Amino acid sequence: MKKKKKSHTREILHRLFKNKLAVAGLVVIILLVLAAIFAPLLAPYAYEAQDLTSTFQAPGKAHLLGTDNLGRDILSRLIYGTRQSLRIGVLSVAIASVLGITFGSIAGFYGGKVDNVLMRMLDIYQSVPAMLLSIALAAALGPGLNNAILAIGISTMAEYARMIRAQILTVREREYVEAARAINASDPRIVLKHIIPNAFAPLIVSITMNIGNSILAAATLSFIGLGAQPPLPEWGAMLSAGRSYMRDYGYLVIIPGICIMASVLAFNLLGDGLRDALDPKMKN
Amino acid sequence: MGKYILKRLLWIIPVVLGVTIMVFTIMYLTPGDPARMILGSNATEEKVEALHEQMGLNGTYLQRLGRYMKQVFVDQDLGSSYYTGVSVKEQIKARLPYTLRIAGISILIAACIGIPLGVLAATHHYTWIDNTAMFASLFCVSMPGFWFALILVSFFALKLGWLPAVGIKSWTGYILPCLAGAIGGAAGLARQTRSGMLEVIRQDYITTARAKGQTERKVIFRHALKNALIPIITVMGGMFGSSLGGTLIIETIFSIPGMGTYLTDAISKRDYPVIQGGVLFISICFCLIMLLVDIVYAFVDPRIRSQYAGSTRKRKAGKGDKKE
What we know:
- The complex is a heterodimer.
- By secondary structure, chain A is mainly α.
- Chain A has a single domain, classed as MetI-like fold (Orthogonal Bundle), CATH 1.10.3720.
- In chain A, 72% of the residues lie in helices and 0% in strands.
- Chain A is built from 13 helices and no strands.
- The model of chain A has no long low-confidence stretch (mean pLDDT 83).
- Chain B is mainly α.
- Chain B is built from 14 helices and no strands.
- The longest helix of chain B has 39 residues.
- The two termini of chain B are 21 Å apart.
- The C terminus of chain B is likely disordered.
- The chains are: A mainly alpha, B mainly alpha.
- The interface between A and B is large, with 46 and 50 residues.
């Protein structure tokens, strides 16, 4: 049994690595992670170091990507920014998936009235557009990156809840669930050990893609002043700060935007590749 | 059919009530005291207390919720701004059309670009057209809409001076915000259309259509696209939600006097009645759109129609070239 599983994983990885775009996405993600880990070594300057004698330097020798209105080195801020972006992506998706899986498991597992009530609640909750809900929650929690992460996590949990519920409904009556119940396994154990592993494929694709989406959402919140607060080098916040000087110093806006886009694109490419690799039927 | 629509219409009531309670609760849990913010930190305790009374901020959660629900649903009043004293209802009436218009036009542009692109990619599966179209749309999905808006402004407004950078005094002011709002949706729709088309193209009835000598054009548009469009309608409805969210941000870039500028301004001031009223209203608009989508869906999809119709209809629907 174990041997078969291993070869299955290998087959998926093989398919994944054959997909050039997915590999490109993975490479970018690895680079981002490395940049985040080794930020102090890679960054030529400290991210908060101001040099008021050299503000608005165009990209050049001393500052590869130029400096901002306070003379801070943009490259260094971008490198430190990877830490924030990855933290946002991973934490908000973790919050969303834990909340969603718990919610969806309860609904799917207990079924009947509980399911009905919970799913109607989810319908109501989803009738507020996710971005608006994130804005409202982030506003209520107060500005700050952690609050933005929490807000995004809470407002995107519905997808996981629906996915897990659907999965549970299809496998609830299967023999292996019955067998697990027969040996007196607790409900959480059945969900964690038997149901979630079976929903692994759609779950991992969603998680990968949503890391990208969360980075995008957090950048949006920072842009309107609800996410990261200065001097924290978050890409959305940098973009927002550079906006006032856009007319003369376009690079202040363009460069952080490219970083956001590249990292979101990387997660999307990997997610797409994973979906095709996990479910070759879908690829036609 | 009528039963389905009625059922769907009645469901709006609990949704609106639920959203009201949710929005109220979020604002209730917000730390920070608006009375103190208005009066400043030197205000005496009595003064703060008096203002609480006046603003309806005293009492328990349930008392305040009850008061708010009564105010919204019985008196049909959303209160007035803590700062300007202007009625929230009047402001929403003046501002909501801008937001809805931009979000709506954005969706239309997105559909006009995205759906043909998706069809093109699906019909040229595995060719460079497919690859380019899909990479381009993935690129656009990953792009922050507000960033694209800024790039558009700096190029078309600041550099070339063709279009206004802010405001919407004439129709030219709509071009950039709508384009910025459309890009993500267009890309998303292209991806959705492509995968929908690919799924449909493999069906037996497409082979049948080809076998009976139907022109390729007719096969694609009459048989394939028509079936692939059904799930896309739902996607477009859901997209209206994200488009509304995106429009809120884009409005602040173009200084458009819509809901976005209103809300972001209110958020920074903790102007509860404005935030509550604004979020509530946008959500209700979204609910109505989704209701419309569900009804349209029932009209175009014979499978749903047949569920609520008599048995004669059911047989008729089964004869159509729907995928099962």
